[in-house]
C-alpha cells in the first residue's frame, strides 16, 4: 500500500492583500483565534500520517521557521509556572519523529515553480501532498488530507481537491472538466486555469489540496509561463490529466488569503473554541441588528 509521508507548503508569496500587517509578518503567521494559519495546515498533514514538512519560502518568511523551532526558554518557564497546557501548545509538532525542511524560492514565479523547488527531496515513485495554508479547512471527522490519501490509495491516482463554486467566482480558480463520477470522486478529461465564467467546463474548482506523484515534475515547464505569466501547476496537471482524479472533500473551506475569508474563519473557529464560544456567542447575539 502506498503512503504519503511528505507535504510541501508553498509559503513564498508576499501577502500584499494584508498590508500593512504583512510588511514584517508572513501572512501565514496571521492568527486564527490563537494559532497561525500555517500551523493548522501542518497539523492537518500530521494527523494524516505525514511526518516531513517541506516549506517553499523566501528570506522574509523567517518567522515561519522560528515558529516551528523549539523555544526551550519559554517552554521551561511555562512548565515552571505550572502552565502545562500552554507549554504543550508550543511543543514541536510530532516531537522527534517529524522533520522540517525549508527551501528558498528565489522569486515567486507561480505555484508550479514553487512545487518544482521540492523535486530533489521527493524520491522516485513517491507520492507527496501539497497544502496551501491559505485554504483553511473546518471538518467533522476525517480531515481533508486524510480523505484525499484514502482516495489516492483506493484509485492509485494523483488527487486534486475540488469544491463546487457557483456564479462568476469560478473564474478565480482552476476548473476541471469531468468525464464520469463515482460519488465524490471525479474522473477528469481537462483542467483550465481561471477560465472566463461562460467558458468554465464545470462548477468544480481546484482548491488548495493536492496529492502528486514524483512524475508531476517532468510536466512542470519553467521555460514557458502560463496564465498571468506564471508557472501554473494547472498546466502540468493538464498534460497528465488521465492520471488524476478530483475529489469533492467533506468540510468547509475558508479563503484566508482574502480579508473576508480571514474574518469568517476567525468567527467560526472562535465559535468552536470551548474557552470562548459562550462569551463570544453572547456578544454576537447583541450584534444581531447590524
From TrEMBL:
Gene that this polypeptide is encoded by: galU
Q: Which family does it belong to?
A: Belongs to the UDPGP type 2 family.
Question: Where are the annotated coiled coils located?
Answer: none
Q: What is its EC number?
A: 2.7.7.9
List, alphabetically, the NCBIfam families matched.
Answer: galU
Q: Tell me a GO biological process for this protein.
A: UDP-alpha-D-glucose metabolic process
Sorted alphabetically, which Gene3D superfamilies does this protein's record hold? Spore Coat Polysaccharide Biosynthesis Protein SpsA, Chain A
Which intervals hold domain Nucleotidyl transferase? 11-267
Q: What class of enzyme is it?
A: transferase
Query: Which GO terms of the molecular function aspect are on file?
Result: UTP:glucose-1-phosphate uridylyltransferase activity
Q: Which Pfam families match?
A: NTP_transferase (PF00483)
Task: Report the function annotation for this chain.
Answer: May play a role in stationary phase survival.
Keywords, comma-separated and alphabetical = Nucleotidyltransferase, Transferase
Q: What is this protein called?
A: UTP--glucose-1-phosphate uridylyltransferase
The UniProt catalytic activity note for this protein reads: alpha-D-glucose 1-phosphate + UTP + H(+) = UDP-alpha-D-glucose + diphosphate
